[in-house]
């Protein structure tokens, strides 16, 4: 089977990408509107970029029904700050509650029952129930695609402060089994860690031709 993005619909391309690029970590992004209303939404187009400075990115797509920007992007463009909270098995159901396309101005902390706690450096709140919160300042927003359904933006942010639960931090490393992160698959499917495989990277050794 061959899929040509030039002839396939944006929704078909979306289904192909979320089904083939798996599993994906979830950026649970909390922002604040110019009016002071908190917003909380999950995004699985998310990854790290650099470690110096610590920089991450995620991509909020436009609404498929109207083509409008989502509140998360609007808030970041206006305020220039956001928090990425790590999603674990313990808060998976609450995270899913916030994935609904609510009307603008909805406080998803209240909808989900999650607790908003103040950040230290930036203004948007953190999710208290998440074991890792990354306070971020906006580096750049890169618009990609049409100003309509299927389009979106790449949001790049620098981590200015990271909160880590002491229970998952051991000897300078994170305990991945204690973290119990939740990953995104396609449709209504998510995944837990499952079986962990160890593969050590080998150092290059040139052949001895003497």
Protein model, in words:
By secondary structure, this protein is of the alpha+beta class. The protein has a single domain, classed as Electron Transport, Fmn-binding Protein, Chain A (Pnp Oxidase, Chain A). The chain contains five helices and 13 strands. The strands form four sheets. A seven-stranded antiparallel beta sheet has the order 2-1-5-8-9-4-3, covered by helices on one side. A two-stranded antiparallel ribbon has the order 6-7. Strand 10 and strand 11 form a beta hairpin. The longest helix has 11 residues. The protein is globular and about 70 Å long. The N and C termini lie far apart (50 Å). The model has no long low-confidence stretch (mean pLDDT 93).
Give the SSE layout.
Blueprint: H1 10-20, E1 27-32, E2 38-43, E3 46-51, E4 54-58, H2 71-79, E5 81-86, H3 92-97, H4 108-112, E6 116-117, E7 126-127, E8 132-144, E9 152-164, E10 169-170, E11 173-174, H5 176-179, E12 183-184, E13 190-191
Antiparallel strand pairs: 1-2, 1-5, 3-4, 4-9, 5-8, 6-7, 8-9, 10-11, 12-13
């Amino acid at each position: 089977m061959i899929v040509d993005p030039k002839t396939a619909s944006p929704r078909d391309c979306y289904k192909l990408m979320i089904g083939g690029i798996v599993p994906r970590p979830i950026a649970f992004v909390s922002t604040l509107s110019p009016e002071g209303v908190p917003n909380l939404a999950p995004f699985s187009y998310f990854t790290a970029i650099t470690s110096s400075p610590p920089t991450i990115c995620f991509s909020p797509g436009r609404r498929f029904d109207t083509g409008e920007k989502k509140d998360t992007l609007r808030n970041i463009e206006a305020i220039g700050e956001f928090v990425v909270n790590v999603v674990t098995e313990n808060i998976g159901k609450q995270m899913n509650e916030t994935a609904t396309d609510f009307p603008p101005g909805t406080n998803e902390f209240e909808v989900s029952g999650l607790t908003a706690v103040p950040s230290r450096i930036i203004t948007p709140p953190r999710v208290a129930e998440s074991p890792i919160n990354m306070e971020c300042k906006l580096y750049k927003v890169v618009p990609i695609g049409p100003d309509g359904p299927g389009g979106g933006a790449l949001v790049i942010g620098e981590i200015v402060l990271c909160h880590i639960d002491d229970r998952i931090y051991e000897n300078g490393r994170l305990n991945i089994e204690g973290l119990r992160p939740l990953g995104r698959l396609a449709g209504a499917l998510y995944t837990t860690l499952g079986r962990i495989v160890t593969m050590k990277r080998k150092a290059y050794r040139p052949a001895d031709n003497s």
